[in-house]
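User: Some background: our group keeps a shared notebook of sequences we're curious about, and every so often someone picks one and asks for a predicted structure to add to the entry. Today it's my turn. The entry only has the sequence so far, pasted here. Could you supply the structure so I can complete it?
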Amino acid sequence: MQKGENVVAIVKDVGRSLGYPIEDTMIDACHRLRSRVGSDKHPGIIVKMVRRLDSEELLQKRRVKRNFNTHDMGLTSGPAVPIYINESLSPARRSLYNAARQVKKDKNFEYLWVRSGKIFLRKKQGSNVITVRKIEDLKDL
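Assistant: Of course. Here's the predicted structure to add to the notebook entry:
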């Protein structure tokens, strides 16, 4: 993070590196979060796309490209740092997701993921997918 940096340009570089070019007209709002005191990590960037289809396609491109990092963007002066792209969740959904993460750990579920704001769990490959809509869904597992 540098003073006066162009976060839109960074977002466009990420999109280009994933094979999904992002134009200025595709971005509704974009800003970097505040850095945490004592943290040496760069704070995240929040991007709101104009169309949901664009954000879903960018997320899909990121899922396909495993181990996406700063070297993929041509930033090779330092060690490769992973680049994460996540869906934004409401505070209630974020809380539910955190509870589902704990259940995943405690009950040995292999998979937990979010698609279009919905939270899903799966015990193992080939088993039924469980949609987590409320905290009671986790208590019944």
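Suggested note for the entry: The mean pLDDT is 90. The CA atoms of residues 87 and 116 lie 8 Å apart.
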